[in-house]
Amino acid sequence: MDIISGQGLFFLFCFITSCFLIFSTTRSRRGSLQATATPPGPPRLPIIGNIHLVGKNPHRSFADLSKTYGPIMSLKFGSLNTVVVTSPEAAREVLRTQDQILSSRSPTNSIRSINHHEVSIVWLPSSPRWRLLRKLSVSHLFSPQRIEATKALRMNKVKELVNFMSESSRREEAVDISCASFITMLNIISNILFSVDLGSYASKISNGFQDTVISVMEAVGKPDAANYFPFLGFLDLQGNRKTMNVCSERLFRVFRGIIEAKIAENALRNNPKDISDSDFLDVLLDLSKGDETELSIDDIKHLLLDMFTAGTDTSSGTVEWAMAELLKNPKTMAKAQAEIDHVIGPNGIIEESDISKLPYLQAVVKETFRLHPAAPLLIPRKAESDVEVLGFMVPKDTQVLVNVWAIGRDPNVWENPNRFEPERFLGKEIDVKGRDYELTPFGAGRRICPGLPLAVKIVPLMLASLLYYFDWKLPNGVVSEDLDMDETFGITLHKTNPLHAVPVKKHALH
């Protein structure tokens, strides 16, 4: 994300090189009326602007600043103008009312380093190219028909997760919830994309995939001087370009191997593959054939990178945060388990269709999204022209951030906002599908996360399965009140120290 932490070395560098930066940070002159109409914000230092006000957790710093400067606030990071919104009303303006003007993107230096912004469904501006990729992903991955067609796959992969947990329970071993959830999501996504398993609960290779994906997310979101002073990009002062290049190439190498195998397999076929047996890569390869190809192999690799990283990291992280909150709040966990036991019975099997009968479990998931949105500032938007938001002028090319983390903890919106209380959602129609701006972890409008339909299926299914088949206890005498809930900021928000818990078998898997 285009925010930088208060690292002393970075500030020192900024001041030392200030004489070279004056021209790039000089404001263009505007009329006095327009200047007074821009959103309020804190005073700025020469050259660095407001960089000194933002620490290692920008979502928290912005939330604190908004208490002084209001729900729409101007900040300056080097040469980059930024507006941060922190209320449902302001989010509605950005994500719906002015969605078209604010639907462009502000790609970070690390994204630009691999030219990902030129072919990425996440980072492309709203354009014919973006619409093509969006249509492909919605039609062939996340349409109701495709979601239904992959239901048996999801059930099978969750069954494998339960079996792994059962083995750990038999040995009375603590499980890394983050890693286990990631492997489950990895195999769901890799089967939808390529029809292969890429993860194994017994393999360190799977951990390597998780480390690589997290490194990509951190390289996008970590401090980078070039995001604020673009001419410094070649220096790679924070090492983000190097990290992005190494980690993305590691994933591209896997994709290339799968693509080459798929092309060779298809070349041996006498008849075209039946559409019901085709995976997403089959569809993409069909579009890469002929003289007037819509996609190149390089385009396919970058599209797969989007689907692979976003699809695995965000859902598995949400499951981990949910389990952490439930272990920290044993009465809430007991209430969720009692509901599941009542609906499923003592010898049942959890199906996706059961989730609609579990309102308290659904409330637990919503409460997790409220307190721990996967992308706390969503993906940075950019104003394509001057635009008015809540009576303030947002100038062209301004980066616009929606602090959904702050909105989820706003005492003007939520009672007891820092408490984990799923009961707040019972009997209410609030959902996460982009219509209720107090709860938009997936964004809203034309740039809403295309993977939302899959995420809202698999997250509650995984969580319900973990709660139905097992009781849970913390290892090494850790008590729930002392459970560590520290977070690490990136494009996504991770639990700093992975959650470990011991599963205690409760129901057998039939």
From TrEMBL:
The keyword RNA-binding does not apply. The keyword Cell membrane does not apply. Keywords: Heme, Iron, Membrane, Metal-binding, Monooxygenase, Oxidoreductase, Transmembrane, Transmembrane helix. Signal peptide: none annotated. Pfam families: p450. Heme binds at C449. Its cofactor is heme. This is Cytochrome P450 76C1. The chain crosses the membrane at residues 6-23. One of its GO terms (molecular function) is metal ion binding. Belongs to the cytochrome P450 family.
